[in-house]
Design a protein that fits this description.
5-stranded mixed β-sheet, Truncated FimH, Immunoglobulin-like, 6-stranded antiparallel β-sheet, 170 residues
């Protein structure tokens, strides 16, 4: 059981691509998170922080002339509630999930969120790999319906992350 955060790219915008050529999956194992004590409606469980750099490098396309990027954390899941800055998304009939992420330049932010201006890296305009410097991923789960016996929690993508050299125009 778990949930995932993917670093990917959309088809219709000028985007930087994951340097390894595939989406990077940041996975959370939920198999030992819930107990009889926290399996109650309204209970919030904060998973252990994923510290350190997540290890994703991006490469921007030819023609990129700037040395900075914007990131968007997009979700197909609906935001059900906001508590503090955390935006809780409906993961399934039992759980809501929310996240905070710390970037080395942008600081702490709470997805989903679009066009976050990130720092300068001279590799951006050179079409060379540069680090997507996310760290300190804090993931919160809120119980909306208690589990009875064994419940399989299917893998769920919370966010797809897009890295662009400029904000998208519409």
């Amino acid at each position: 059981a778990g949930t995932a955060l993917f670093f990917s790219h959309p088809a219709l915008a000028t985007v930087c691509r994951n340097s390894n050529g595939t989406a990077t999956d940041i996975f959370y194992d939920l198999s030992d998170v819930f107990t009889s004590g926290n399996n109650q409606p309204g209970q919030v469980v904060t998973l252990p922080e994923k510290s350190g750099w997540v290890g994703v490098n991006a490469t921007c396309p030819a023609g990129t002339t700037v040395n900075y990027t914007y990131r968007s954390y997009v979700s197909e899941l609906p935001v059900q509630s906001t508590e503090g800055n955390f935006k809780y998304l409906k993961l399934n009939d039992y759980l809501l999930g929310a996240m905070s992420i710390t970037d080395s330049v942008a600081g702490v932010f709470y997805p989903p969120r679009n066009y976050i201006l990130m720092g300068v890296d001279y590799n951006v305009s050179q079409q060379k790999p540069f680090g997507v410097q996310d760290s300190k991923l804090v993931f919160k789960l809120k119980v909306i319906r208690p589990f009875i016996n064994m419940v399989t929690i299917p893998r769920q993508t919370m966010f797809t992350v897009y890295v662009r050299p400029l904000p998208a125009t519409r």
